[in-house]
Design brief:
The protein is of the alpha+beta class. The chain has 6 helices and 19 strands.
Length: 366
């Protein structure tokens, strides 16, 4: 143990006396990657000669032809049409007339089942609609749509056909897609053409719109007058025709006629057992017709009869009667007495005028 410090001191002294040596780095080692056994060596193949051969055999490409520059195209700028064009004075007058018709006050009227009635042709009717609501334009019963309706704004409005009732009444269902729209609609039918204005409101709308037709009312009155004239013609034709007699064997001609003048006295009086026929003289149809009165047990009484031309047809038999024309002192009369009458003197029963006429004729005979 005593030698260790001695050896340590000797080593320190020796190191102090020797010069310091710098360590020398070893030279670089060249490392080459060797191919694995069996792998061909690229040096064995003449790649450079092969490339040169390929370049000699390749065709020489011609230089591309110069591309001609495109012709200069002048840009054509579309000009907007003028917003307004001049029109003639006659066209301005036509516009004024059209505006007056479209702005004319057109008062609607209440109709059946909630309909709002416009008078057709009196002005431009306006149909107010609303989004999410259905407006119905009703046509006249029996009227048919003959062409597709035309609407000014087919994008924001929808129209569709409908029908109901007998006779069938065709309708057009109108629906706007938003509020604040304003357009027009044309509906062609087999009777007329409807031209209406369509307006959309946020909430207000007309559920049913129809029309009143003044021309139809006038046509109905004309039809009524024609029917009345036809009835009168038929009555005149019937009055000119003589009712046939059921049997000639039943004809009775024994009638006595007194009084009156040549225009008032009947030509003949005859009956068939049921009806009495009084034939007036020629020209009676163009003169004032006398009144036929039948004398019953209680005095003169009215009787139902009809006149066909110059013939009085009484729907019963009578024994005493008179044809009277005028009143008062100017009254004229012709008395008719059936041969079967067995009562008192006809002249006394029918009045003083008959008695006077009878006496005059008796005096003339004597």
């Amino acid at each position: 143990m005593r030698l260790f410090p001695f050896l340590l001191a000797a080593g320190i002294a020796a190191s102090a006396q020797e010069p310091t040596q710098v360590p020398v780095s070893p030279p670089p080692v060249t490392v080459r990657r060797q191919p694995p056994p069996g792998m061909p060596d690229p040096k064995q193949y003449p790649f450079e000669q092969i490339l040169n051969k390929l370049q000699e055999d390749a065709p020489v490409k011609a230089a591309p032809a110069p591309v001609a520059a495109p012709a200069k195209v002048e840009a054509v700028v579309a000009t907007e049409p003028p917003k307004d064009v001049p029109i003639s004075q006659s066209a301005e007058g036509a516009l004024a007339l059209g505006k007056s018709w479209m702005t004319e006050k057109h008062e609607p009227a209440p109709g059946k089942d909630g309909r709002v009635l416009y008078t057709f042709g009196a002005g431009l009717p306006t149909i107010v609609c609303a989004p999410l609501r259905v407006c119905v334009l009703e046509l006249e019963p029996g009227e048919k749509i003959v062409g597709e309706p035309h609407i000014g704004d087919s994008v924001r409005w929808t129209i569709s056909p409908a029908a109901a009732g007998k006779p069938e009444s065709q309708m057009i269902v109108i629906k706007p897609k938003q509020a604040g729209l304003d357009t027009n609609l044309l509906v062609p039918t087999d009777r007329r053409a409807y031209y209406v204005r369509l307006v959309s409101k946020p909430e207000d709308y007309l559920a049913r719109v129809a029309f009143a037709y003044p021309d139809n009312e006038a046509a109905r009155w004309q039809q009524h007058f024609r029917e009345e004239e036809e009835k009168q013609r038929k009555q005149q034709a019937e009055s000119s025709a003589v009712a046939p007699v059921e049997s000639l064997e039943n004809l009775y001609f024994d009638y006595r006629i007194t009084g009156g003048d040549d225009y008032l006295r009947p030509v003949r009086v005859v009956d068939d057992g049921r009806k009495t026929f009084v034939q007036m003289p020629a020209g009676a149809t163009v003169r004032e017709a006398p009144v036929l009165v039948v004398v019953g047990t209680n005095g003169p009484e009215m009787v139902n009869y009809r006149v066909k031309g110059d013939l009085y047809i009484v729907d019963r038999l009578f024994e005493r009667g008179a044809l009277i024309l005028g009143v008062g002192k100017k009254q004229r009369r012709a008395d008719i007495v059936r041969g079967t009458y067995r009562g008192k003197d006809a002249g006394k029963l029918l009045g003083k005028a008959v008695t006077e006429q009878t006496a005059t004729r008796e005096a003339e005979r004597k």
